[in-house]
Structures are given as C-alpha cells and as structure tokens.
Amino acid sequence: MTHAVFERKNGTLCGFTISGHTGFAEAGEDIVCAAVSSAVQFTTILITESFHEQAEEEAEDDGAVITVRLKTPDQGQGSRILEGLWQHLNFLSEDYPGTITIKFLEV
Length: 107
What we know:
The protein has helices spanning 31-50, 78-95, and strands at 2-9, 12-19, 55-60, 65-70, 100-106. 36% of the residues lie in helices and 33% in strands. Strands 3-4-2-1-5 form a 5-stranded mixed β-sheet, with helices on one face. By secondary structure, it is of the alpha+beta class. The longest helix is centred in the middle third of the chain and has 20 residues, at 31-50.
C-alpha cells in the first residue's frame, strides 16, 4: 500500500511524504503505482521548475520514499499545487480501494 502524509502549517498545505507501493499489480504492471509516481513527479516539477517555489526535496530507499516541503508555504502557489496532488491521490484511492492511504499532519 502507498502511504501519503500531507503536512499542514496553520491549515495550509506545506509538504508531503509518499512511501510504499500500491500493490495493485506486479512491479512494472501496476497502473496505480505508475499514476502515483507520475503525479508526484509532476507536482514536484510544477512547484520547483514552473512556479520556481523554494522547496526541499528528498528521496530515500531508491525513490520508495519521497518528501517535498515548501520553504515558504504562505507565499506563491505551492500549497495550491499540493492541494491538487492531494485531490488526485484521493480520487485514485476511491477508484482503487485498498491501494493508497492519506493522512494529514499538523507541523
């Protein structure tokens, strides 16, 4: 199962950590895992390259754990982009039950 933990500061999304694999299908055949990976990559690129938001990025365990934290979540569009990722993962979790858990953490 993929675990998504979104971080909030004063109610504003400011980061996320995604870990694990969805287990929907075998490695290389898992469309849900591919969708999550693509969404995370797109979100990170959108934040850092397109909107030039300052963010800390960290990948562990050969990319099995990805963390992105906005340095200034109260400025720019980064928190809204994170909301889009949350909504996308929420829709995936509804379409493919038992593959993704989503939690929120106040930091």
